[in-house]
Amino acid sequence: MAVREIRLFGDPVLRTVCEAIDGIDEGVRALVADLCDTVAFDGRAGLAATQIGHTQRAFSLHIDGEVSYVLNPELIAVEGEPVPTGEGCLSVPDLWFEVLRYPRATVRGIDLNGDEVLISGEGLLAQALQHECDHLDGKLYLNRLDRESRGEAMRRIRESDWF
To answer: Which residues contact 56 (CB under 8 A, 6 or more apart)?
Structure first.
């Protein structure tokens, strides 16, 4: 469909808890197409609906060259001990901080046919699953930073050209 503009830190839609999708219609199909088109660039691992201005529970992934999506994703399992993981966000450009993430994660949701989808993985996939589910719950990775790192992030955001 179209590559959409990414909403940036400060946009209230990024703090919105997304609503479940209760029926698959042309609007939902268009949202999925936009999510997939917008995530399909080098350096983009995931994109939540809020990042393109929608408040429906959906995200897309771009892992190992493959683009996929999940509707109504729910993080159902995390495994291992959380480890510091370098992380950034398309909605907070040019920042990179260590965030505690579980090394393995599983998300359950549905596809455009209403069929159940189960995605499990480790490494970048696990990180992206956790990051995108946070977005759909109205949280940015900045919320997971320790006090000192969050202060540094906020200072850098205020000094940025995009804020």
So the answer is: 18, 19, 20, 21, 28, 31, 49
